[in-house]
């Protein structure tokens, strides 16, 4: 179940502050966890206002995104620009990566799920749901805001409109 805009705000208020920027970017870009975990500062372009998806991390291995359509430029919405500017103060110059855990290491999905995501949902009084719902939340929020399905498809890196139309629209 995707989160509503109100639930996104409740979640962001409840999540450990160190991970707030990570989740703002997740909710407002629709990036996959592996794409966020592998995101490097050289792929964040504040001048063009895009995050360039060129790498992903799957089962600890960094490599090319899963499909040619997954290689894409995601438009930075205002909350994303703000979150990445904030994140810059935390990791830029210390690591090539935009997001690291509290110990400065690679973000791992199981660890974030059990230690950050689930406790924040509970603390915010929200129903349990999978971490992947950040991606679904992006799609539904953008369609609800009047964005065209084709734009949402492109931002999410889906090869066709079919997934967007069948799952979200």
Chain-wise SSE layout:
Elements: H1 5-14, H2 20-29, H3 33-38, E1 44-45, E2 50-53, E3 56-58, E4 61-63, E5 72-75, H4 78-91, H5 109-123, H6 133-144, H7 149-156, H8 162-167
Antiparallel strand pairs: 1-2, 2-5, 3-4
Helix pairs in contact: 2-4, 2-6, 6-7
Structural summary, described in words:
This protein is mainly α and 169 residues long. Helix content is 48%, strand content 9%. The mean pLDDT is 95.
Task: Describe what is shown at a glance.
With 169 residues, the chain is mainly alpha-helical. The chain has helices at residues 5-14, 20-29, 33-38, 78-91, 109-123, 133-144, 149-156, 162-167; strands at 44-45, 50-53, 56-58, 61-63, 72-75.
Structural class: mainly alpha
Q: Residue share in helices?
A: 40-55%
The total count of helices amounts to 8
- Percentage of β-strand residues: 5-15%
What is the straight-line distance between the termini? 14 Å
Mean pLDDT: 95
Query: How are the strands of the biggest sheet laid out side by side?
Result: 1-2-5
Could you give the order of the helices and strands?
HHHEEEEEHHHHH
Low-pLDDT stretches are: none
Sketch the major β-sheet: 3 strands, antiparallel
E-strand count: 5
What's the overall geometry? Answer: globular
Any idea what the radius of gyration is? Answer: 15 Å
